[in-house]
Design a protein that fits this description.
Number of helices: 12
Largest sheet: 7 strands, parallel
Helix content: 40-55%
Bound molecules: nicotinamide-adenine-dinucleotide, thymidine-5'-diphosphate
Strand order of the largest sheet: 3-2-1-4-5-6-10
Number of strands: 13
Radius of gyration: 19 Å
Shape: globular
Order of helices and strands: EHEEHEHHEHEEHEEHEEHEHHHHE
Strand content: 15-25%
Structural class: alpha/beta
Amino acid sequence: MRILVTGAAGFIGSNYVRYMLSKQPDAHVVALDKLTYAGNLANLAAFEGNPRFQFVQADICDPDAVGEALAGCDALVNFAAESHVDRSVIDPMAFVKTNVEGIRVLMEAARTHSVQRIVQVSTDEVYGHVPDGSVNEQTLLAPRNPYSASKAGGELLALSYFTSFGLPVMVTRGVNTIGPSQYPEKVVPVFVTNAIDDEQLPIYGEGKAVREYMYVTDHCTGIDLVLHRGEPGAVYNVGVEYEVDTVTLATSILELLEKPRSLMRLIEDRPGHDYRYSLDSARLEALGWQPKYTFPQALAETVNWYVENEDWWRAIKSGSFGEYYARNYAERLARSRPVAAG
Ligand code: NAD
Ligand code: TYD
């Protein structure tokens, strides 16, 4: 199978490339990435020189580049996206461009080249805040921030290519994912790298927002199962049913790193914060998928990776990331409160 993996230099994309090349000896991977602030060639360095791997720097919004990369491919898995909620609140434009227009370009190219299997990687955030119970794939979408709204638009557009043109598109909606090489803007790497440096852990609101955290290889096996066995036109939730609030998450990280609770700080909430997501993943489980990592295992693996790969994240944190961090956190941290002893 020759597969185009878009967004391959990011967190989940690069882990998926590793999974494909190591577990599927007949897989040839064309890895395409624009290399935005979140794309990092270091994430793909291990595959350089592998005859089954090829890298193309390109924008998924560029029809010529996408068409060229897709020629001769049997399959497409799209990870490329603007992926961070807080940045989408600051600047929604790039989110609409990549997460919606980029999908149109990919789907048009997939039609032209008669690609046989296509997975659009989406997110549990398209359901919006889930006050109780769990949502399945029939639940109405109710995204509430520019990131999740653009992801919902992108996946609906992708599915419309199945309905309108018979293009064999599947969609996955995965929960929060953690593991090696996640850009240090998402909550786990923010907390882990700050804690290593004895810096404060900025917790939004009262720290009670709940997420399911899944290890990245479990997310990759879920996506891969859908690629090979999913039903065209279908959507698959990918979740682990293990709910963790932000204070508990921060506490667990501080315990693993043997750092004091006093590093936790409550800061002004994220606007439009979705306080809970929760997925029913029975449809994917019926295909035979089971996550391998419990939350404590996933977190311990992740923390260890950041401890052992300081060069990777220090290179990011010493660059333009500092401007974003100051803009998003500096004033809020100056007005922050401690977390009550618990
Ligand atoms: P990431 O930000 O680490 O990586 C995104 C990659 O896409 C980067 O390498 C970036 O350079 C590339 N990219 C961005 N715009 C591009 C464009 N126009 N053309 C080509 N490449 C472009 O994100 P991630 O955490 O790896 O997420 C990957 C996908 O999984 C996204 O679609 C995201 O919505 C989805 N997802 C992520 C999570 C999570 O917890 N991280 C959970 C569920 C779903
Ligand atoms: P995040 O990693 O941004 O993922 P999501 O897209 O699910 O919001 O945030 C996960 C949770 O952690 C969410 O409830 C917001 C919270 N959070 C903080 O409390 N502080 C932070 O600095 C960040 C980035 C997130």
